[in-house]
Amino acid sequence: MDKLKDIVMRKRLILPGIIIFETVLFGMYIIIHDHFLRMHHLQFSFINYLDSNVAGVIFVAIAVAYGIACLDGNREWRRISVVAMFAIWAFYFISFFIREFYGFYYPVWIFMLGMILIIYYEMKVGDYR
After folding, report:
1. Using an 8 Å Cβ cutoff, are 85 and 24 in contact?
2. Cβ atoms of residues 75 and 127 within 8 Å
3. Measuring CA to CA, how many Å separate 101 from each of 26, 41, 95?
């Protein structure tokens, strides 16, 4: 356990660790709770794609790839996976923000915006060169 703590502190992986943890948790939530984005009187095919178990598996897979790249020090895979994670969080932010305008009031879009800003900050100050 001390060896893992030393790696995390030396490579400055606290912020990426928080991003990975939140992404895996949300991906598991998507897998466990089927059709939580369903709008009963409005159907958008974009939101239906985000509401599937496959999207949850993609969420978890991207987070695991990012975690492995961070621990391994592979900058190319780290860059690719953080951009993919940023994109998928942005898609979910858009879907929840659209739902806000149609009367489905969930403050989750604020959480999504926060995650996007955290990922953006990590992309700006992280070791990606």
Report:
1. no
2. yes
3. 23, 14, 10
Give the pLDDT confidence score for residue 116 in this predicted structure: 93
More confident call, 73 vs 83: 83
Question: Which H or E run includes 18?
Answer: helix 14-32
CA–CA gap between residue 10 and residue 7 (Å, rounded): 5
Three-state secondary-structure class, residue 126: coil
Across 76-96, b (16+ Cβ under 10 Å) vs e yields eebbebbebbbebbbbbbebb
Q: What distance in Å separates the CA atoms of residue 13 and residue 19, rounded to the nearest whole number?
A: 10
Q: How far apart are CA 110 and CA 117, in angstroms?
A: 11
Tell me how far apart the alpha carbons of residues 51 and 125 are, in angstroms, rounded to a whole number. Answer: 32
* Sequence ranges of the domains in the chain: 14-31+44-124
HSE, CB side, 13 Å, CA atoms: give it for residue 35. Answer: 4
In whole angstroms, what is the distance from residue 89 CA to residue 99 CA? 15
Global pTM reads 0.79
Token representation of residue 72: 């391994």
